[in-house]
Design brief:
25% of the residues lie in helices and 26% in strands. It is α+β, with helices and mostly antiparallel strands and 165 residues long.
Length: 165
């Protein structure tokens, strides 16, 4: 473990390449209490155990980084298989996770994983949903539904013309 200054950069490092950097306090008995509930380098670049409050997030999406680009096949059919649910987190059973109490809405990772595996991540045997990865399916599904509505509207207009006035 080391801490130092290099140029205008404060560096905090652990000698073990697999180690995570956690912030907290330690008492005289050596008991470490994590503060802020976040770690750097614990399998993700930043791991936060609790809620995040932010003014915005940006995902890398530049076309120049991507290859083998294809349209999403059957986006609406995929979304129709995903079930939105209401639930309460097991706050007492998993107290170290700092879950928010009360009724919530969301998805079950196991359900999403069957349909869109790339939208589910796993850490320590527990699964989570990357909700942002569902947005492209929502966009393409709206387009698909809009095409159906436009086609139906043309059919309605056509039928209306056949009705005598």
């Amino acid at each position: 473990m080391g801490i130092g200054v290099y140029g205008n950069e404060l560096r905090l490092h652990a000698d073990n390449p697999g180690a995570a950097v956690s912030f907290g306090t330690q008492d005289n008995a050596g008991t470490f209490t994590q503060a802020g509930r976040f770690q750097i380098g614990s399998g993700y670049a930043l791991y936060v155990n609790g809620s995040i409050w932010a003014n915005g997030t940006t995902y890398t999406s530049d076309e120049r980084f991507k290859q083998n680009i294809t349209a999403i096949s059957s986006p609406l059919q995929k979304l129709l298989q995903i079930n939105g649910v209401e639930y309460e987190m097991k706050v007492d059973e998993f107290s170290k996770n700092y879950f928010m109490p009360g009724r919530q809405i969301g998805l079950l990772a196991q359900n999403v994983e069957k349909i869109i595996p790339g939208a589910v991540n796993e850490k320590d045997g527990f699964k989570g949903v990357d909700y942002a990865r569902l947005v492209p399916l929502l966009i393409e599904s709206i387009k698909e539904l809009n095409k159906k509505i436009e086609t139906q509207q043309m059919q309605i207009n056509s039928l209306l013309k056949t009705i005598p006035k």
